[in-house]
Write a structure and sequence with these properties.
This protein is mostly helical and 179 residues long. Helix content is 50%, strand content 2%. The protein has a two-stranded antiparallel sheet. α2 packs across α3 and α4 packs across α6.
Length: 179
């Protein structure tokens, strides 16, 4: 029995093996939420996030990634989140304009948890960005879904996204409203 393989078959096989070797890494990296996290945890996190940010209808997939990023920073994040929820309930805080007063009456750990959650939504990452890889704890959550872009979205675009066709910037816009 003779078996022959040509160069194209060899390259296709090598590419398939390489891709399959990366799949478990890629699916774990981009998962919306870790398997051990219940949908109830994500739902509670989403409701808490909406209360803290003052934004309704936040994206559930982004919430899963933010929760996963915060959980990777601290295995105690679920307990910290529950403490924050209880503190908000007991203080009857419904208007985030009163957060500064609320924060002054809370332990630092509760305030830090709230700020970490708000930061994940507004900045689009969890952790701390550091040029030294040994100290860098940042984890990507979202780019286009980061809340920091919403206030100026009518006048500016998300950085690196084009407003129009090639050379659109050569002619000045008629008005900001039509830009």
């Amino acid at each position: 029995m003779s078996f022959s393989i040509n160069r194209r078959q060899l390259l296709a096989g090598a590419a398939a093996i390489s891709a399959s070797a990366l799949m478990p890494w890629a699916t774990r990296l981009w998962a919306d939420a870790p398997e051990e996290v219940s949908q109830r945890e994500i739902h509670d996190f989403l409701m808490l996030s909406e209360q803290l940010t003052g934004k309704s209808q936040l994206n559930a997939k982004i919430a899963g990634r933010a929760y996963q990023g915060l959980l990777s920073l601290s295995g105690e994040f679920p307990q910290q989140m529950r403490q924050l929820i209880e503190a908000l309930k007991s203080a009857e805080l419904t208007d985030m304009r009163q957060f500064k007063t609320f924060a002054a009456q809370q332990p630092d750990a509760v305030v830090k948890t709230a700020i970490d959650i708000i930061s994940a939504w507004y900045l689009g990452y969890t952790g701390t960005i550091d040029g030294n890889l040994n100290r860098n704890t940042a984890q990507f959550v979202t780019y286009t879904g980061a809340l920091m872009y919403r206030p100026t979205l009518d006048a500016t675009v998300i950085p690196t996204y084009s407003r129009g066709h090639t050379n659109y910037w050569e002619s000045p816009p008629a008005t900001i409203a039509t830009d």
